[in-house]
Amino acid sequence: MLRATLFFCGVMCFPFPAPCQPQTSDAQTRTMEAVLSEIRQLRQDLQTAAFAARKAQIVIYRLHVQQGVLEQATSRLDNVKMEITQIENQKRYQTEQIKRFKEMKEQAENEEQKQQLEGNIAAFESNLQDWEPREQELQTQQIDLEAEVRVEQAKLARLDEQLDRLENALESASLQASAPRHQN
User: Fold this and answer.
1) Whole-model pTM?
2) Count of Cβ atoms closer than 10 Å to residue 83 Cβ
3) Contact in structure between 153 and 70 (CB atoms under 8 Å)
4) Which helix (H) or strand (E) holds 109?
5) What is the pLDDT of residue 184?
6) Are 80 and 138 in contact (CB under 8 A)?
7) Cα 91 from Cα 97, distance rounded (Å)
8) Domain ranges of the chain
9) pLDDT digits (tens, 9 = 90+) for 10-48
């Protein structure tokens, strides 16, 4: 009986190593490696997303600035076009007045009326000629501003395309990040 008690105490105090313990250790190691791998991948994904977000902010800022530049150029062009239209309307009015004064001159009964109408015709013709240099100057400005607007529109289009590419890249990265990860 003493032997049985000693045997029982020996078994209980000094247990034999269980054969499944190394398997538990291997399973824990694999789990830890998988968790570490996932953490590393998440960190890399986070860094990529942060970089893309910074780049997107820069592109959006540049896009906003470029829209302002384009609006200013378009506004200047619209102002020049409006001034040209005003000059054309003024010239048309003066041409009509000259025509009307000439008709009145032909129908005038005395020489004094004819001379007065002749003075009016000369004044309107002089005013009409005064508009020519300003109109030519504005037409030159219009051509320059139209070219500037086209250039600014092209810059805006390039920035818009860059933003679209960045958005597509973010969507692609998001889809890849949400796809199940394959362990090696």
Assistant:
1) 0.67
2) 16
3) yes
4) none
5) 46
6) yes
7) 10
8) 47-177
9) 555 555 555 545 556 888 999 999 999 999 988 988 888
* Long-range CB contacts for residues 40-46, cutoff 8 Å, separation at least 24: 41/181, 45/173, 45/177
CA distance 165 to 168: 5
Task: Please identify which residue in the block is written with the tokens 């600014």.
Answer: 152
User: What's the token pair of residue 30?
Assistant: 């694999």
Q: Which residue has the tokens 């805006």?
A: 156
Joined tokens for residue 137:
């100057």
Q: Distance (Å, rounded) from C-alpha 53 to C-alpha 98?
A: 67
Among 145, 156, 155, 147, residue whose Cα is nearest residue 76: 145
CA distances from 2 to 12, 14, 15, 89 (A): 15, 18, 19, 129
Check if CATH label 2.115.10 holds for domain 47-177. no
**At residue 135, what is the residue type?**
E
Query: What backbone torsions phi and psi does residue 15 show, to the nearest 5 degrees?
Result: -70, 150
Extract the tokens encoding 62: 């540049």
